[in-house]
Design a protein that fits this description.
The protein is mainly alpha-helical and 183 residues long. Helix content is 42%, strand content 8%. It has 6 helices and 3 strands; from the N terminus they run αααβαβαβα. Helix 3 runs parallel beside helix 4. The radius of gyration is 20 Å and the shape is globular.
């Protein structure tokens, strides 16, 4: 019987080519890439090669690629980086009520630290109300975080429409939609 796995939003089977590269890294190229010895330099070159390959695929600069231990660390790094680097008296950040806890928790933290936090509601299918988003946008908005595909409900947000509302209201807001194959 063929296996059908329906929770790819949470984790996905690793491509065999990636497994082979990882086995090589774990067994032959395991040095600390921050060290100056032979294995460290070899590991640093391997990391640089992978970073450049990813950057070429994403059409960005290699120094824009960061590796984290997982989604929670990545979400926190992005949100905190945006909020902490804004030197403004008033800041508004917007998200939805069905975001991953790694997003909602950091938004809750900022709410307790004088950042204006707006949490958009969703309908029965998990879609945000675009009019509610439009009404929430203002000149103090610096970040909007909307999960493109919800890992619990399977809801696919209309990221193009969301992005248009955000950029029409305030072009300097951080919002980079990740378009899945499903959209």
């Amino acid at each position: 019987m063929k296996e059908i796995y329906l929770d790819n939003a949470a984790t996905t089977k690793v491509d065999p080519r990636v497994v082979a590269k990882m086995v090589d890294a774990f067994t032959n190229n395991y040095g600390n890439p921050s060290s100056l010895h032979r294995l460290g330099i070899q590991a640093e070159l391997a990391v640089k090669e992978v970073r450049e390959s990813i950057a070429a695929t994403l059409n960005c600069e290699s120094q824009e690629i960061y590796f984290t231990s997982g989604g929670t660390e990545g979400n926190n790094m992005i949100i905190q980086g945006i909020v902490e680097n804004k030197q403004r008296k008033r800041m508004r950040i917007i998200t939805t009520g069905i975001e991953h806890p790694s997003v909602l928790d950091v938004f809750t933290f900022y709410e307790s630290h004088q950042v204006d936090v707006v949490v958009l509601g969703v309908d029965a299918q998990g879609h945000i109300d675009l009019d509610e988003l439009k009404a929430a946008m203002d000149a103090d908005t610096i970040l909007v975080s909307v999960m493109g595909v919800n890992n619990e409900l399977g809801t696919i947000q209309d990221l193009k429409a969301i992005g248009k509302i955000i950029k029409d209201a305030n072009p300097s807001v951080f919002f980079t939609p990740i378009m899945s194959r499903a959209t």
